[in-house]
User: Fold these one by one.
Assistant:
Number 1:
Amino acid sequence: MNCQPMSSPAPSASSSSQLGARLRDAFWLDAALREVSARSTAQQTALRTQYLAGARRADIAEQLTDEQSAVASLLLYREAITHFALAVALARDPAFDARGPAAASPFALLEDLAARGLIGKAPPELAEAKAILTTHTDPLAFDALSVEDLLRKRAAVGAASRALRELIEPRSVREIKVSRYTRSAVLAALAVVLLGWLGWRVSRPTNLALHKPVTINARHPDSTAPLDNSGAVNGEIEGSYGVHTSIGGGWVTVDLQKVYKLTGIKLYNRADGYFADGLPYILELSQDGKTFTVATQRALPFSSSSPWTQDLPETPARYVRVRSANYVAFTEIEVFGKT
């Protein structure tokens, strides 16, 4: 019997799956919850005490950004690193005693944890911080440095403090569960918003007039509208108008390019005033572009922000015309219907 070798998953698919799992784990805080749940109450209390002590010092050091405060921030970072190292040890080694001799040197402590496989390789920022903090042990050593050297060393030690802080999960089980609940609630709210938006996108009527050909009886000599009359159907509400016919009887016709059963129109008046000059506007419909039938008319003023909205009883038409005994000027016309 011929046996075909089993095919292994494509590396890209495996990588995508692993990435997705990591993202889900990070979002739902699964690893954090497992880690904290495994700790004893005493372990969690001691860890949190050390973490908060380090956080208080690091937060103040982060705020001391001027040159005069560089020495003070360096000293605070040094203390913060010590407390963060103790917190890491308490998190990884349940038997660790923060008052024992192993707690004397934070860098030796971290190296020991790494050697025993309790933590991964120490962040690279710690090596530079170790060189700086173990070399300058004299209380006045930092005061003797130049400003440039002092600022460089502060930046390096600050980066080490932040990298070490990220290794610690100080939250309690309850705090993590609250965060999970909050994230779940936010995700549910976003899902509702997204579904509502998708429903609106699917259900909203399509503007049949958008970018369709427009003809007019004649252009007003001072009109600033596009020469091809496209301003009437470009989907924009202009600050003045999208189309402007000549005075003395004007009309604007939109060719929908095929017959639809029209259910309504929305006409946005010119936005620069003179709202009533062309009224009444007469709305006419046609299937062949030659014979037009009056559908309705509008004598009451309307504007670009409060347009003329008119329902139609599924009237078959290809051409939609707005006519006036004076002139026609508006910013946009929208036409709705179905095939």
Note: Helices lie at 11-28, 30-37, 41-63, 70-92, 106-115, 125-135, 147-165, 173-203.
Number 2:
Amino acid sequence: MIDLDYDEVEEHASELRGTLGVLTGPISDIESVLTEAGVMVLVRPLGTRGPDGMYVRRERLAVALLNGNTYLPRFRFTGAHELGHHFYGSAGALDRDVYKPANLEEKRANAFAACFMVPRSTLSRAANAREDIPPERALALANEFGVSYQTMVYRLHNCHLLKGGATKRDELLGARSARFNDALRDRRVSKQEALPLDYVNRAIDAYGQQLVSLDRLAELLFMDEIQVKKLLTQAQLLHEEDQ
């Protein structure tokens, strides 16, 4: 892949929305969307300076780890970013800062996330390209779609909905200040969340079918390998070669 075909990425995001039955409006629950797409979701408090997320794929097992300490727009965008990795068949990725893609694969996942969270057709109906869009309107649109102000400004520009093009984009980005408060900033995890039962069962089933190794199972369950081995022994599920 030499360069990104953004129109193609837009089509892929629209295609997946159709497959998942979320054709147009804002995505309020990115975790449910990932689950519906066949990705097991794990939310953990990784700290405000921790990585935004991670995507892990092992044959038929796909897992997205999301940092629950990030505010809601970033949390949702990261989930959509990991969904992009899943859609394009990534072998795995650690996303330390989802807003700073380091390579073409990460840029593609970001483009996919933006297109998926803010469909061009829906945004075009909400924003009139013939009218000037002040910062307050851009912020209102960001809150309506559940994305950050910055993401919305870039999306408006990429969808050719800003009078003045890149100049207007930069003007809007420069206007972003502390006086603009995102309405959806309160997605926080104050303590370690329990792993979903379905996640645990599917991870153990993957081990039982020898799709993942013992050490990989320990990583997926965020447990010490010795603890996992003890639990599997008690349940009589430990493979002979792991004893």
Note: The chain is about 50% helix and 10% strand.
